[in-house]
Every structure is written in C-alpha cells, then in structure tokens.
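Work package 3, deliverable 3.1, input record:
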Amino acid sequence: MNAFTHGAWRRIRVVAREEYRRALETRWLFGFTALFAVLVLGLSYFGLAQGREVGFQGFARVTLSLMNLVLLIVPLTGLMLGITSIAGSSETLALLLAQPVTRGEVLLGRFLGLAAALSAAQALGFGGGGVVIALNAGFGQIPGFLALTALSLVLGWLTVAAALCIASIWPDRLQAMSIGLLLWLGLVVAYDLGVLGTTALLRGAPLQAVLFPALLLNPVDLVRILVTLAVGSGALFGPTSAVLAGMFGSHAGIAVGVTVLALETVLPLAIATRVFSRRDW
Amino acid sequence: MIRVERLTKRYGAIVAVDDLSFEVEAGETFSIIGPNGAGKTTTLKVLLGLARSDGGRVTIGPEGLSPADPRARRALGYVPQRVQFQPGRTVAEVLGFFAELRDLPPEAVGVALRRVGLDGHAARQASQLSGGFTQRLSLGQALLGDPALLVLDEPTASLDPEATWEFRTLLEQLRREGKTILLCSHLLAEVERVADRVLILVNGRRAGLERLAALRERQVSATRLIAVLHEAPDRAVELLRQRGYPAERLDDRTLRLEASNGQGLEALEALRAGGVRVRSFEQQRPTLEEIFLAAVRGERRDTDD
C-alpha cells in the first residue's frame, strides 16, 4: 500500500471513528437498540400467550414476526441517521472539508462510521435477544434468524448510502428529511401497491416476468423474500410461493439477491460521492 | 501566498464575486472588508476549496496549488465565523480529532492549547464553552501543525467586547510571529488593529485595495465642516457648490461639507463673502469607518449607474 493510499485510509478511519461515536451518542439510536432487544424478547416470550402458554418459543416464529417490524424500522433509522449526518450541518461540514482531506474520504468515512454504528445497534438488539432465546428455547431454526440479522445489517447499510445520496443532493435538512420519508413510505408501502396494480394490469404475462425485476428493485421486498425462504416459510406467500422459491430458493437465486442488495448499496454511495465532491458547501 | 486572478463565482443569476483579482503576500495581514452580501465569504469558500469558481484562477502557497488540492489546505488553518463542536467532546478531544486528521502527533494538541491560552481547559466540554473560548478553540484547531497561512471569516462577529479584545490580541501576536493572515470582516474596526492591507469588496467587485496606512493618511487629511446658519442653508449650499465644494443640507439651519484640510476655513470665508451669516461651526475628523463607507457608497453609485 503506497503512502497516499495509506494516508487516505487513515483519514477515512479518523472520520469514520468520529462519526461512529457521534451516531452512537444520539439518544434515538440508543432507543432503537433498546427497542430491538425488547422486540426480540417480547415477540418470542409473549408469542405463545395466544396459545394459553407463556414462554420462550423458537426462532422461526420470532424471525417472521420480527421481520415485519425490522423492515419498517431499519430503513427509517438508516435514512434518518444518514440524512442528519450531512443535511443541515453545513458549518460543521465546512470546517471538516477545509482540512487536508478529500471529500471522497469524508463521505466514505461517514458512511463507514454510520454503517458500523447501525450495525452495532442491531447486533446488540438481535444478539442480546437471540442469546436469551437460544438459552431458553434451543437453536432450532437459527439459520433463519441469522439470515434476518445479516440481511437487516445490509438493509441498514443500503439505506444509509441512500440517505447520504439524498443529503448530498438536497443539503437542506427539512427537504432531505421529507424526501427520505417519502422514499421510506415508497419502499415499505407504496411500492407493493404499485407492483400489485402492475401485476393485475399485466394479467396475461408470466408472473415471474413481473415479480423478478419488481422484487430486485425494492430492497425491502427482496430482504422479506430472502428471509422468509431462509426460514422455510415460503408457503406464507400462497400461490406465488412456488414462483418465488424458483427465483430465490436456490444458491444462485440467493447470490443474485445478495449481489443486487450490494449493488443497491454501492450505487447510491457512488452517486453520493460524486455529488458531494462537486457541490459547493 | 495567495493569488486570485479574475475570480468569478455565480449562484444562478446572482454574481456573488465578479472578476476579482488580488494577491496576499507572505507574512502580511490582508483583510477583505465589505458590507453583508459583498462576496467576502464566497471568496473565502473558493480559497478554501469549499466552492468552485465559475471563472478565473486561484492558487495557494509558493507551489501554486489549487484550492481543491488537499495539500493546499495542509498549508492553511481556517477559523469560521461560527462553529458548533459536537456535544460530549472535550476541548482536547476536539483538537485531537483535527490533529489526527492532519496526521500530527498527540503533542500537537498541547501546543495548540497553550498558543490560544486554553491549556487549563483541556477537559472542559467544548460545546459548553463561552463564545470567546469557542473561537479560541476554533483558532487552536486552525493552528494545529503550525500552518503558514490563517484564513479567518469574521471571527469576532458574535463575541462580546472583552472576548473580541482578547481575540484581536491573539491575532496581533500571530501577526508578530510572521503568519500570513487573511481576515474577513464587515467591520473596519475589527481589522484596523492588525491589517496591513485592506481590500474593499462591494457587490462582489473590488471597490478598493489600500494599505491601511494610506487610509489613515486620507483620514488625517480629511475634514468635515458642520455649519449652523442664521438662515435656511439652501442658498449657502448652492453658493458653495458653485465654487466646487461638495456641500449638502443637513436640516433647516445646518449644512455639511466633506473636504480636505484647509478647505473648511476657505468655505467659511466664501460664505462670509457671499453674505451668508454663520451662527456657529465645527470641524470634525471623519473616522476610518466613515472613509471606508464613503468608498463603498461611491462604488455602489457607480454600480447602480
């Protein structure tokens, strides 16, 4: 590694460490971590209450129950963390950018710091709850729980990258937050309605031709499918389960899904770096 | 140390900096002054690589580096007008972060703290410092690594008089040490203690570039005559204008005349000869600020025309 690259990585680490600390010190990330742990434990413990039995249940049901909450909360947290890192902090940012550091280093450092902070919060929430459940209910179905944990981390990084992209394009905090919330609503609610409508309109077309690109384009849906299939509960999707299993049930399908998620992280990060590096601060 | 050639910066249809050229020599304290919206901060942003120019050329240091080059920013320290340090950080941690970013050893923090008189405050929360101490900390981070050039954007704009005085004393000390200082302000009073040269910026354009000593000379040779008459001043103003004196009516008995030394008494003699009865008069010396404002207003008139 030459001196320049070494210097660049050192500066990226310095920015990332500071951003990691800043993110962890925000009260709501702490609250998010606590909420996660409570949800994992609560969903598991009280899940059987409906069956007149209170106690720790296995990972499978916890994973599926938790997944729906995770898919709402993680993107929102990632978006808000990323947006507040840049938008509305032009004075602080100007002082940082006036140092001997490139803008690319600053942006990458902030991404890594935020991604690490969000991952730490999730790991603590999932991990703490998971250990307690494993001790009480055993390790059955743990691969599905681990898949949810891993994909939740990826979803967090992806939304942080999207947020940095939004904040680089719209550095006004209110504007960036509004766009972030619209994106979140689009990902978790509006998109599915759109897909349903499109499917109904294209009734004659093969289901796979509509679903495959539609699922790849929405990371929230993609994570939902991958986790559900990992848990072995594809039947929950009803008649489409066979189609979904055909698309993402194999190793190749999973690889495609994970690759797409990685691309959906890298692409907004690349756009963010380009915009961040070219705009006036 | 800094060379700005025909710099132009636009924000949409607004021309924030218009064909601006100047040069800052090594070791001098150069000040950019001008009213709000004159383009001072925009000029600094281009110099710091925070904004891109739309025309012209800016180079930093003897190597002629572009502001976009991080090496150019290694040679300078920047003190913004306002800064908010991250809550939960001590003074030493704030400086530690910037020192690490500049690849400096931990000892650099102690050196910077001593230079700005904060060595007894290293463990205090940076976000809870007073305005004066916050700006000292800001100056401390700018001094990390002992850069040859300091760029300061209205550093005392939000300080109380005592903190302002203390900050200016620190600046004077740095000037004596031979630092090149680029100081931006809308107040001449803020820069007159330290500046060697003053660039007056109005509407993004250069309205004047003067040695402060020359401005002082102009001040010394300037006189303002205020004359109270026994009659309405219109006839007297007309009479003086006919003789080339720039007189103006102040109220229904008073006129004012901006003149050079000696012209005040000549004008009084002209009034007496013209039959105007003067009740009383007073000669004043305009302040440096007023001389600056006259230049600014003159430029504004030219621009409006």
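Residues 3-278 of chain A form one domain.
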